[in-house]
Design a protein that fits this description.
Strand order of the largest sheet: 5-4-3-6-7-10
Order of helices and strands: HEHEEHEEHHEHEEEHEH
Shape: elongated
CATH class of the largest domain: Alpha Beta
CATH topology of the largest domain: Rossmann fold
Radius of gyration: 23 Å
Length: about 290
């Protein structure tokens, strides 16, 4: 794609996702992600029912009557988008690839964060860390993130989420909201995930395509692993082949669910052939009820 086409695609994505943020999503985002702590604001006279621990003893001694400290929530968050740009993300059996869906979801999350005055950073990874953009604010910064997610040309083809998570844990030292976006076609990464899940507010977003589970009945075809180049010829007209293919996909999904559940990681599953907004909103509503936010 040449520069005008790239700019047009980024602009189209911005218009669509900003519209969703303004009309449907920003309140969901704001309600379930809290700031890092509380900032001291002022003091006021003690009232019955106030916490004794909140009394400012220095002011109380000076004024001769009890005063308590007032605090406000430190709202600003650091949001990290950790996005898998390995070769398997280029696959898509519908109008968009997994990588394009990942970019649109990341764009929505980034604009939601910016609207809430949060900082957003980006890590792109394959079997190596391809790119790190430190967290910042602002529209131009957000558009740069989206451009990189859509059009960055990675050096690697494979997937190593453990390496990306180790890098995240080293480079982001304060607690952050982490959206980890991947198709999770990867070896086990439980150890690194356990550390990240404890350090950060971690949400896994699983991007997948229906053809990764359901084979069409179209006779003999050649399948190629996008990351390794390995090829396999199979006969899709055989029911047993199609059934076994679906079973293997289910087993992989179940194993991923077990890993995430064991580490208390929130997860969202999105498909390239479905509107992602209902699934995102449903997740945020469930999370809001679970943590008791009012």
């Amino acid at each position: 794609m040449d520069a005008p086409e790239i700019l047009k695609k980024i602009r189209t994505l911005e218009i669509r996702t900003r519209g969703l943020v303004e009309t449907a999503f920003a309140g969901d985002y704001h309600s379930v992600f809290k700031g890092r702590g509380m900032n001291f604001e002022d003091v006021r006279e003690y009232q019955p029912g106030d916490e004794i621990r909140a009394i400012d003893w220095n002011v109380t001694a000076r004024m001769g009557t009890a005063f308590v400290k007032k605090f406000t929530e430190e709202r600003e968050l650091t949001v990290m988008l950790v996005v898998d740009v390995s070769a398997s993300g280029n696959f898509g059996s519908t109008t968009q690839s997994k990588r394009e869906l990942a970019a649109e979801v990341a764009c929505l999350l980034a604009f939601s964060a910016i609207r809430n005055n949060d900082k957003v950073g980006l890590i792109l990874f394959t079997d190596r860390v391809e790119l790190f953009i430190p967290p910042k604010k602002g529209r131009s910064h957000t558009l740069r993130l989206i451009r990189e997610i859509l059009f960055f040309q990675p050096q690697g083809r494979g997937t190593d989420p453990a390496l990306a998570l180790d890098y995240l844990n080293k480079i982001v030292t304060r607690r952050a909201v982490v959206f980890f976006i991947s198709d999770f076609q990867t070896p086990d990464f439980s150890r690194a995930l356990a550390v990240s899940g404890q350090r950060h507010d971690f949400v896994a977003i699983h991007i997948h395509d229906e053809r990764e589970k359901l084979l069409p009945n179209i006779g003999i075809i050649m399948l190629e692993d996008a990351e390794t180049g390995e090829q396999l010829e199979i006969n899709t007209s055989e029911r047993g082949t199609r059934t076994r293919f679906a079973q293997l996909a289910d087993e992989r999904a179940a194993e991923l669910a077990r890993i995430l559940r064991r580490n208390n990681i929130d997860a969202i599953s999105l498909k390239t052939n479905e509107d992602y907004l209902p699934a995102l909103r449903s997740f945020f509503k469930q999370r809001e009820r679970r943590i008791g936010v009012r």
